Amino acid sequence: MNKENNKIHIAIFASGAGSNAQKIIDYFKNHSHVSIALIVCNKPEAGVLTIAAKEVIPTLLIEKERFFRGDAYIDILKEYQISFIVLAGFLWKIPQALVVAYPDKIVNIHPALLPKYGGKGMYGHFVHEAVIANAEKESGITIHFVNENFDEGTHIFQATCPVLPDDTPDSLAERIHKLEHTHFPKVIESVL
Ligand code: GRF
């Protein structure tokens, strides 16, 4: 076995710009026992695929039928020896077959303080718009294990930031992104 094969292989599931994916990739570059082995994505135009190409990390473009009604790509994940999954801006629900195949081995990051502002349809700017509309004084991030319901698994970590009186969804999103970038890679490492 070579050195790569002895490492914990992580798959990052992402469908957006991939700024969190980039931070995680940077953090685990040359790590002694963790390797980012695969980027899984459901949008051919997603920025995260450009990042994967630049970082020379294999990608898997998935489609709905096989993900939800087929084998959920578990065979391919096993081929890449994936033992841990990180959701970083992945909007599809995780099918039960995948949750069962990776018990307590899938984590997600949510840009709010769950259980508030979670669930179906609560993602990206919708979250920040709702937080501002409700005049919350505080928002933040939640990193949690994934079960078959949106945003409902056991919490692992939360961090907070203020919501300022003149915040827009964009300015709040920027503050939250910074929190995510600071904490997510380290929290992943601690869970591993
Ligand atoms: C993050 O805000 C994360 O909380 C949410 O999706 C966003 C992904 O952003 N789940 P990026 O693609 O990592 O920049």
What is the secondary structure topology, with strand pairs?
Blueprint (H helix, E strand, L loop, with lengths): L7 E6 L5 H10 L5 E8 L5 H9 L3 E3 L2 H6 L4 H6 L2 E6 L8 H6 L4 E5 L13 H10 L4 E8 L9 E8 L6 H23 L1
Parallel strand pairs: 1-2, 1-4, 2-3, 4-5
Antiparallel strand pairs: 5-6, 6-7
Helix pairs in contact: 1-7, 6-7
The structure holds 5-O-phosphono-beta-D-ribofuranosylamine (GRF).
Structure characterization notes:
The chain has seven helices and seven strands; from the N terminus they run E-H-E-H-E-H-H-E-H-E-H-E-E-H. It folds into two domains: 1-103, Formyl transferase, N-terminal domain (Rossmann fold, 3-Layer(aba) Sandwich); 110-192, Rossmann fold (3-Layer(aba) Sandwich). It has helices at 19-28, 47-55, 64-69, 74-79, 96-101, 124-133, 169-191; strands at 8-13, 34-41, 59-61, 82-87, 106-110, 138-145, 155-162. The mean pLDDT is 95. The protein is 36% helix and 23% strand. The chain is globular and about 50 Å long. Helix 1 runs parallel beside helix 7 (169-191) and helix 6 (124-133) crosses helix 7. The chain has a seven-stranded mixed β-sheet. It has 192 residues and is of the alpha/beta class. It binds 5-O-phosphono-beta-D-ribofuranosylamine.
